[in-house]
Amino acid sequence: MNSSQTAAMARRGVLLGAACATGIALVTSGAAAQDLPTPEEMWQIIQEQQREIEALKERIVAGEAQVEETTQAIEAVVESVDAGTTGAGWWDRTQIGGYGELHYNIKENSLDRVDFHRYVLFFGHDFNATTRMFSEFELEHSLAGDGKPGEVELEQAYIERDFSDSVTGRAGIMLIPVGLLNEVHEPPTFYGVERNKIENVIVPTTWWEAGVSGTMTTEAGVQFDMMLHSGLKVPTDSFKIRSGRGKVANHDFEAGAVTGRIRYTGNPGVELAAALQHQADLTQGSDASGTLIVANADVTRPVSNSMSLGVRALYAGWEIDGDEAAALGADSQRGLYLEPSVRMALGGEESVGFFARYETWDTRAGNSADTEENQWVVGVSYWLHPNAVLKADYATLEKPGADDASTLSLGVGYQF
Asked: Considering the domain 91-415 in this protein, what is its CATH number?
């Protein structure tokens, strides 16, 4: 094929391609023209889309309102719980506790006695993070009523308020801040079936009054207590301190009292305290003022992983003005006790402890006669659990002008 023929074929190819392209374009443009909506159809489409957009906006606005409403409801519940104003979940802020003790006393030359000495229930409630109440309801000697040996008592009932991390105030019926047992006397917390004589005869444990109190603590473990409260009404024919407790039961209140205490617990296992109380008139009528001084120590030290040694000591003394008390020799009343102990872990939550206690007291120390009494007590405590204990002890009492008397005591105690 020569060059002229080749050129002619090329021209024919170009013309054929152009024709094909023109045909394709005509077909395509025709189809597109047939698919395009008319202006009326386009307007309907736009209106439909607008309606869908408005409906979607309404749903979004409604959802935002519901979220806001739910958020406000949650915040209201949280605020009411914090303020303690809602009944929902009140049980989470209410505490129930208690303790009890059963005693069996086998006394020399006397009838044996069995007594469920105390059954106590605690009720507390937190109103909010800084204000709370606490109460203690007690049945003594198992059965109360006319001619029955027991009593039903309201031992504590007060409101407490934290004014800061270190300052707390109380108002109501409260235990006097004095001694080792008056505030902490649950059976698993002390040795012996019966409480010691000094914190019974000289410090009339358990001793509560109506009043107001304040407590301040420091980071060094020093605590200061001050309480203004109702006072004792000691009978003038005996001046027995324990007989003066009115228990806030429509009690005469001509003269009140003030009690102050400083207490150190900054070292684990160590408690040291001193308390002073003054009452303008112990008898609520004869102007016989009285002052009580108490000093106590409670120290526990581990000697191995399974054994610890402890010692408790307490001194208490009253000085009473007035001729009536002096005539009886009761113007000076005092006592002290010393109690060493050893406690051994038995594995798990069980432990056993042995103790000995010497007690001496005199409620007529103001006269020249020999009126001092002494008692030796030795015993064992077996803790089935830190809050459940079995006890046994043997006590020998020495009284002037009388033969020594011994008592074997068995006890069961618990707290929760």
From this structure: 2.40.160.10
